[in-house]
Amino acid sequence: MATTEWPYPGSRWWKFDFHTHTPASKDTNGWQRAIGTPNALTPETWLLKYMAAQIDCVAVTDHNSGTWINLLKAAYAAMKALADQGQPPAGFRELTLFPGVEISTQGGVHVLAVLDPTATTSAIDTLLGSVGYQGTKGDSDGVTSRGITEVIQAILAAGGVAIPAHADARKGLLQCRAGSSQSQLDANTLRQVIAVEGLQAVEWCDNASPWPDCVAQAASRFARVLGSDCHSFQGAAVPGSRYTWVKMASPTLEGLRLALLDGNDVSIRRSDEGAFDPFRVPAHVITAIEIENARYMGNGQPARLACSPFFNAVAGGRGTGKSTVVHALRLAARRDQELTALGQGNEPRAHFDAFRKVVNARDDKGALRADTVIRVQWQHEDVRLRLLWRADGQGTAVEEWRDDRWQTSPSQSVNPARFPLRIFSQGQIAALAGSGRQTLLSIIDEAANVESLRQALDEAQRTFFTQRARLRELDGKLAGQAEVERKLDEAGKKLAALSQADHAAVLRAYAQAQHQAREVKTLFEQLKDIATRIAELPENIGLDDWPSQHFTEQDTDLLAWRKDVDLQVDQLRLDLLERARKLDASIESLQKDDRLAQWKARALAAQQAHTALQEQLVAQGVSDPQAFARLTQQRQQLELQRKALQQMQGDRQTLAQQIDAQRARLTQKRQAITQARQTFIQNALAGNPHVRIAVVPFGFEAKQIERELRELIEATDERFADDILLTEDGEASSGMAFDLAQADEPGKIGAVDSVKQRLLDVDATLGGRLRNYLQRKHEKPEFADHVLAWFPEDDLRIEYQRDHRWTSISQGSQGQRSAALLAFLLAFGEEPIVLDQPEDDLDNHLIYDLIVRQIRENKLRRQLIIVTHNPNVLVNGDAELVHVMEFGRGQCFVQQSGALQESAVRREVCRVMEGGHEAFARRWKRLGPEV
């Protein structure tokens, strides 16, 4: 029923047809013939045609007539009344009628006049009278007595918008002679018309048409709009065939006038300019921010800022709560660790820490109370979520909108993957260029999807640690291998001595029979195990059932095929069970085999002979008649141990090779992270004139590497400076961290490996205190594992362009550092981004070239929320929604919200922001003194 569903506040795009006709125009031949017949076109049918074409705004511009305007308005009012009662006519959707007329001026040029939606037929009649039109209403052949310049001035004086019709075509103001850029009309006349104050737009039928040379520069300022010029509902020029997208807060004449002043680059887009989806919103959007019971905001009733999915500006003077909104959003999104990572004493962190304190007494510092609640409504595609943060730490963190109410979300996880968001507090961006480079690196990782690569590295490290632990376990067991060999040799010698007697043959036969019995027993155990495993296989063979809701009676062929598949699988299970049964039977048969029985007889004979021999030896007074049996059994056990240890030795060799390969894999996966970062930055900053960033593998700053090296060996104090990093006059001069920092990129891996080896070998070149310390660390074998798997973190070398030369960002001012980093941070990402006064320390040239341009590009793909005290940011950045903050009666509150095209919003911006009036005047310089 309504226009295109758009639940968001602020400016939006409206589909506008600037040039239409009704049967009031005499050259609508088909409609004229139907007048007085049952097929006559009615105002309701005319309206429904434009509604069906999804047109939001229609300028009714009949030839020199406004006859149908009142008819259309009455018909629409009746249709709207039914819709409001819940009984809309079929095909009804809301649209706005802009009364207008296509005036045939003296000389034959046509001009469209578009009046306020409240205008009526009489307003058109009055306008036609003022320009001296005496011809037949609805006829395009008659002309005004006034020239085109006077006609345009009359339209403007009537409060309307004047648009030369089909200006580049027949009866058009700016038509050129065929095959040239020379004007059809007199050049002086054209210059006079173009110079009319208040002329803002032309209807331009073909974007490829040239401007006439004589006025090309002056006319290029005009917005070029498009209309269907529909004279019937047949052929090419029908509703929806040609139209113009116009960005306005609401469909009003004032909104239209301001959009035309913005022109085609900002608020006007023609239907012939290619695919355009003005209602596509980013995947993640903040729809509202609420602050309740904070110390200086949200008392009595929550302070609420609804949000557009595009560019939201929060403006206001000092102390009006602008930054409070940013801090509150950071708390709700659990992004406080991003400031914590900047370190103690950092100004953005200090401001945030001061804000988040809960006050208990009047003189306490802090901006929160014990009952402060922050709510952030979030939209992810079709899912509506709400983040909650409470100062008392109680309650749920995430709610979902289900069944027309907020309910606790099954998942209470609040993380960057679920709620992707970039928040940059005042001064934070400049900090990222200095000591906060590692924080910037984490931002890059999140945007470049490095998390999966880091997970792969972590998994590779876990595998490496497991392999190393297994190696130590094997080495512990293999430590007894020499002793097993000695005992086996000793037992063999004793048995050899016993074997030299006359009973040697008996003993050998008995030993052989024992070996054979053991092998036969093992064979039958293996056969029984095979039968058991085959019998168990059918239990694990089966296919998942298909969900019945995905298949209907029309799928009988597919379901029959599935049934055959199931039968084949069932048969496979039966076959396996039969195989297992047959193997059991075979085992029984094998146990009764005559050949096996013959061997058992031989083995029994050997055992009996051995028993007789033992009795004979006892009778002969042998002191240890069981020596041979004991030694034979001992040798058998030792042989088993040796066999197991030999297998273990082979396993160790294989494992050692796997560990070497895993170390190489660790290096590859670590390098993959660096490469992903480099690729991302290269793509994000391609052609960027403000900043360039290089990812330096394993870092380049000795102090940063020192911190990581000390964390590795768990010596985070100042010990061992001579070996780790020695500084002279504040500059690094020697040490392992210095060596790593100085290594060039091709030699970085070798330098890292060298440091690792020195730590593992407790190298003699290291100082005595460090060697003693490392020897104690090596008492825990896991220490070596972590050394082998360690890699220093990458670092970022950032440069900005100054005087057409690239300069290290460390040499720039805070404003230059902020500008460079801001250019980078705005160059990528589709998640919402919140900037707190990004224009600080930037001159006006940078504000426009950097911030304003980037805002216009960014809001096409992501939501922007920018806190600013510079009117150029919100005015020239074309904010879809503006919140003007104010302070009064001890509270910060939203004084005014709306689009820039709303006069109340403009007045508040001018009131609270220095230079606001000038910013509006520059943007809409042709609007006149009242901006």
Concise summary:
The chain has 931 residues and is an alpha/beta fold. It contains 30 helices and 26 strands.
Q: Oligomeric state of the chains?
A: single chain
User: Strand portion, in percent?
Assistant: 15-25%
Q: What value does the average pLDDT take?
A: 89
Query: Percent helix among the residues?
Result: 40-55%
CATH homologous superfamily identity of the largest domain: Metal-dependent hydrolases
Largest sheet: 7 strands, mixed
What is the general shape?
elongated
Q: How big is the Rg?
A: 43 Å
Strand order of the largest sheet: 5-4-3-2-1-8-9
CATH topology of the largest domain: TIM Barrel
Going by CATH, the architecture of the largest domain would be Alpha-Beta Barrel
